[in-house]
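Structure (tokenized):
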């Protein structure tokens, strides 16, 4: 069977994560979804909160159109600086150091991978920052057979918020047998 190919820049960012002891990079299964969403908006503004070492950024970058822009923000300045070096040769990419709200000046977003800042602390703002038709990706959920979804026995209010938000068409997708993502599009 053919092996799944990981884009070279993802490999660079994964090595950086290893060297930095950073363990929160997205899974390749999420990465492929990120690439797909970026590729679906070839002239779009693609945003990420929580760069980490740049693994998710590199997956988004692998689907980035010639007329698109990618902006990502990381509050850990050392990580942000190292991740910025991974994309230093591409002026479509901006790696910001600071709080996720720095992203606001680049909104509205055609794709938003909300992975550090915003997702839990200001979910309504996350939705507001999407362009009409903009796609939101949220990972790190645990699949639940229940409705409403539960996590560790309790209703997962955050997941429910995104899945039922009136401005979103949202769905939960399995990425592995033990992990899921919420993907949503902002209504026009
Ligand atoms: C799950 S990791 C990001 C992984 C990365 N998106 C990837 O896919 O490889 C979350 C990151 O968000 C950063 N973070 C958390 N809160 C933040 C905030 N308010 N503003 C900016 N970055 C934040 C953390 O420092 C951490 O590096």
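Design, position by position:
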């Amino acid at each position: 069977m053919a092996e799944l190919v990981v884009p070279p820049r993802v490999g660079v960012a994964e090595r950086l994560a290893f060297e930095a002891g950073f363990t929160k990079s997205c899974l390749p299964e999420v990465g492929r979804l990120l690439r797909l969403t970026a590729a679906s908006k070839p002239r779009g503004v693609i945003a990420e909160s929580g760069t980490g070492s740049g693994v998710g950024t590199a997956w988004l970058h692998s689907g980035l159109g010639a007329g698109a822009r990618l902006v990502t923000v990381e509050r850990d300045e050392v990580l942000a600086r190292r991740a910025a070096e991974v994309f230093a040769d591409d002026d479509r990419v901006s790696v910001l150091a600071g709080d996720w709200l720095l992203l606001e000046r680049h909104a509205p977003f055609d794709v938003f991978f909300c992975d550090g800042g915003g997702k839990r602390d200001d979910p309504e703002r996350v939705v507001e920052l999407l362009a009409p038709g903009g796609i939101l990706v949220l990972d790190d959920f645990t699949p639940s057979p229940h409705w409403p979804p539960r996590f560790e026995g309790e209703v997962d209010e955050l997941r429910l918020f995104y899945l039922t938000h009136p401005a979103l068409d949202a769905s939960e997708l399995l990425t592995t047998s033990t992990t899921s993502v919420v993907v949503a599009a902002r209504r026009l």
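Reviewer-requested clarification: The helical segments are 8-20, 28-39, 55-62, 77-86, 123-128, 157-164. The pocket of S-adenosylmethionine is lined by residues 24-26, 48-50, 52, 55-56, 73-76, 79, 99-100, 115-117 (CB under 6 Å).
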